[in-house]
Amino acid sequence: MNPADETFASAAGAEPLRRVLCRVAEEAGTLANDITALDRAIGQALTVTDMGALDGLQRADAIRQGLEGLSNFLARLAETVEPGVICDPVGAAEGMALRAQLQRLAGLTPAPSPGQDDAGADLWT
Q1: DSSP 107
Q2: Residue 70 domain-assigned?
Q3: Which domain holds residue 71?
Q4: β-strands 86-87, 15-16: how paired?
Q5: Residue 26 within a domain
Q6: Contact 87/1 with Cβ under 8 angstroms?
Q7: If you average pLDDT over residues 46-74, what whole number do you get?
Q8: Count of the separate structural domains present in the chain
Q9: What's the average model confidence in pLDDT over 2-21?
Q10: Paired residues of 81 in beta bridges
Q11: Structure pTM?
Q12: What are the b/e assignments for 18-53, b being 16+ CB within 10 Å?
């Protein structure tokens, strides 16, 4: 959204795009860290004896790498955004399935990061 489009952001949700992109980058980075821990736990729990298990571990690692790349891209993209560009993260977050994630991304409350005692909040909302 460019400055001329600022009228499309709701007054309650209007926020600098740079700040929102930084939150999204942090969220992706935290998810990448969470899947890294999951990948390690699965690897330790399994003795990889068949190709199906190995394939699953490789897919988990690809997801981790993708999330890390997304996090880095968004963080760098945020640095390129002009300070006056406004967006509506509250409106953009509407309809998300996980309440705690919606709150983090929309900047509504200081909800805990993924993996920090909010798994139940994310899974059961």
Answers
A1: T
A2: yes
A3: 15-106
A4: antiparallel
A5: yes
A6: yes
A7: 79
A8: 1
A9: 64
A10: none
A11: 0.66
A12: bebbbbbbbbbbbbbbbbbeebeeeeeeeeeeeeee
